Amino acid sequence: MMARRAVKNKAVCGADHGACLFRPDHPIEASKTRGQAQAAWIAIEGWRHFMREGFDTRTIRNIAMTGWNARVQRWRKGLLCPDQIVLPPRPAEDIDANTQDKLDEIHQLMQITYDSLPRDADIRPRSLRRLFKQFSSLKRPIIHGLLRAGETMNVIAPPKVGKSWLVNDMALAVATGRPWLDRFDTERGEVLIIDNELHPTTSAHRIPKVMAARGITDADVSDHIFVSNLRGNLKDITSLGTYFNHVYEERFRMIIIAAFYRMLSANADENDNAAMAGVYNTIDRYAEMLGSAFVLVHHTSKGNQSYKSITDVGAGAGSQARATDTHLVLRPHEEDNAIVLDAGVRSWPPLDPIGLRWNFPIWAPDAALNASKLKNDGRRRKPKDDKPTEAPWDAERFVQTFIDAEPKTAVVIKAAAKKSKVSGRQAQTLLEQAEDEGLVHRWRFASNQKHKFATEPQPESAGKSKS
Prior knowledge:
The protein is of the alpha/beta class. It contains 14 helices and 16 strands.
């Protein structure tokens, strides 16, 4: 008893949980088990700490806990000293500078995208009476037939088809209050173009060309269109929160982002429906905060677009078409220098497709174009030639084609069937079926000879040779 008490007194216990960390002659496996349990508890505590800080699961796993794991690896390489037990580091303590910088940056972006944006939406249910009274009319139009204030619109087109020229024309139409493409009336207001593809020199070169083609003077738009060229200084959708903090409400009637794919964060996958739904949710909050309509210029996927429905056109996840209010697509017409504009709209009546003809530097409607004649680049599977359908193989046809009164081995029969594109397995199945149905008969010979098949029964005189 005295000896056991002496050993217990020598044990070193942790001050936090009272767990026994070291004891002379203690079984090694028991020590490992306690160590694993303590490590799991420390990890759980750390995970809960970062969740309370507001970090999401991916950030905790890939940044916070990864940094902690590196510190644990350094700890485990240290020398053991029975006289002084050094507890393993905890995830939320003594964070290394690199991990802390990353967490601080993410935390700052969280403050931008949540705290500085409009207050959370009122999601309490409303009676129909209250709903009708509070929302008696739709939001004000920006481009009649296509877009309203606070809505988002995708503009989807193949690369290098001229969509940048088209949206410049759209911006000029809204800035001057003129109809866009001579069809869609607009409500005049200031426009912001956030361009992450073109250099400032390119924008300064292109926009005046469109102005000249439309007969618009500098005085008409010089103080009504604003351009922010971000090429070489890219911002993703999330970090634009800081940018928009300096834009007062309803300053811009319309905000154009070109090109949308370059606004996605490094970790965002445009093929991930959940990730893209989150991106559009952020844009919706910007639109609500600013009272502006957002136009997102994006590209199509590779391949033939002519056979796809409107909402299937566009690279990436399908949620991009479903999350937006207007999904406008441009697809090549079968005639050269022509495209077809079509759109799926949410708050407007359905839109008929429009044929547009390229007349540098603008697209103009051409009533002579048949909007249903989309260009087919031939990549879609071609229909099969109208050849007479070959009758399916059955036991009766198989026997009529490959077996007669002259006995043949199964090998010879299968070889003949193979020339008619009947596989060996199918031929074996049909041969067995024919035998079961009595359409062919098996001829047996000596044990060292192969059986044969014929349409006539084996005569007894062909007598099975005795071995």
